[in-house]
């Protein structure tokens, strides 16, 4: 399975109504450790995708322009905010965001300015500058998850009404292993914010990732409900979102649900991650013939010719344990021969694990043909989507 840390009980939020999915518990199969380790910790989105790199570049320019006048500006603004009838100008708030440092005084000053700015009459605001994403990029740059979470309040919905504001804050929480908070913020946002889609794709990816990391039957139930809701609405999902759910299903000993979802995907071929999870699921229900047949098929296809990896070493190790425990000598020997053939053909991924592949950051996909394409990260891109058949 996939290791997880012990975390507090979650609230179901937007899925508070109890809906029990069909759960298949297996007997006679021992799982000494998580099938897929969840030890990898990092952001799911690169700074390019989140716009943090551009924020830092512009921030450096503003800091350079202010120079020694920075402290005077902050002191004057702090005194100004103490006046009950004071007004926060858009330009002052903008400068404050770029000048804010990672200390309690600066962060509190920014919170005060945002609170006053939000309470002002809208007639005092000019321009169309969106502050929400910039504030969240600051929080991400300073690595301040508490700051981001404290600002995502109901009375500031208009201030943080952009998809990017929420995505950046969810990614920041995930980066700091605040997986429960990711689930809670996702619930709060989908209940209170009005976007074109009820469940935006990037939100779902981070939510599924958090459920996968928490790795409990409760989070499996939650993510399964969400997946069914998305399936009914025919919303396309990122391959990564589906992969997180499938990995969680295997870790929670739900191979039948895992295989059912895989069969409903519109995929011409299975990725290394999904194929490995598929093999693990078949092994969990002791369908070893299917495991062997899949491996034989992959040894005959173009993947074998092109040396494209078809399965992770860790998955083969888990499957081998299961087959050895069955005591079926003919299957044990056949599987051993197939693994040898895979190894000789260079089709086993030995450098990475499933979890390491899942934790690879989603890369920025450039739209302009004149720009060189970014380095492809393993097998994920921010544009990969798939539909689950209704």
TrEMBL record:
InterPro entries: PTCD2
A GO molecular-function descriptor: RNA binding
GO CC annotation, single: mitochondrion
GO biological process, one term: regulation of mRNA processing
Top-rank lineage group of the source organism: Eukaryota
Protein name (Swiss-Prot/TrEMBL): Uncharacterized protein
């Amino acid at each position: 399975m996939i290791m997880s840390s012990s975390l507090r009980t979650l609230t179901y939020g937007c899925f508070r109504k109890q809906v029990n999915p069909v759960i298949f518990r297996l007997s006679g199969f021992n799982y000494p450790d998580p099938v897929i380790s969840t030890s990898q910790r990092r952001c799911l989105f690169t700074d390019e995708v989140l716009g943090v790199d551009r924020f830092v570049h512009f921030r450096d320019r503003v800091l350079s322009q202010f120079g020694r006048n920075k402290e005077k500006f902050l002191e004057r603004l702090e005194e100004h905010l103490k006046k009950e009838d004071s007004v926060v100008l858009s330009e002052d708030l903008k400068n404050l965001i770029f000048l804010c440092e990672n200390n309690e005084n600066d962060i509190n000053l920014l919170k005060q300015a945002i609170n006053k700015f939000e309470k002002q009459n809208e007639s005092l605001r000019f321009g169309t500058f969106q502050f929400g994403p910039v504030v969240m990029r600051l929080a991400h740059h300073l690595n301040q998850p508490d700051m981001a979470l404290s600002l995502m309040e109901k009375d500031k919905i208009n201030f943080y009404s952009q998809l990017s504001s929420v995505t950046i804050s969810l990614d920041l929480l995930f980066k700091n292993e605040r997986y429960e908070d990711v689930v809670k913020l996702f619930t709060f946002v989908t209940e209170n914010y009005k976007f074109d889609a009820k469940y935006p794709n990037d939100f779902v990816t981070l939510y599924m990732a958090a459920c996968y990391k928490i790795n409990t039957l409760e989070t499996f139930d939650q993510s399964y409900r969400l997946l069914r809701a998305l399936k009914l609405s025919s919303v396309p999902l990122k391959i990564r979102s589906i992969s997180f759910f499938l990995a969680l299903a295997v870790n929670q000993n739900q191979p039948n649900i895992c295989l059912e979802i895989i069969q409903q995907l519109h995929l011409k071929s299975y990725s290394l991650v999904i194929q490995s999870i598929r093999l693990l699921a078949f092994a969990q229900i002791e369908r070893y013939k299917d495991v062997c047949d899949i491996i034989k098929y992959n040894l005959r296809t173009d993947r074998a010719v092109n040396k494209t990896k078809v399965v992770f070493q860790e998955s083969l190790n888990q499957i081998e344990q299961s087959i050895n425990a069955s005591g079926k000598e003919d299957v044990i020997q056949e599987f051993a021969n197939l693994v040898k053939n895979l190894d000789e053909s260079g089709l086993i991924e030995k450098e990475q694990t499933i979890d390491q592949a899942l934790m690879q950051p989603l890369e920025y996909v450039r739209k302009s043909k004149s720009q060189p394409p970014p380095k492809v990260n393993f097998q994920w891109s921010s544009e990969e989507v798939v539909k689950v058949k209704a």
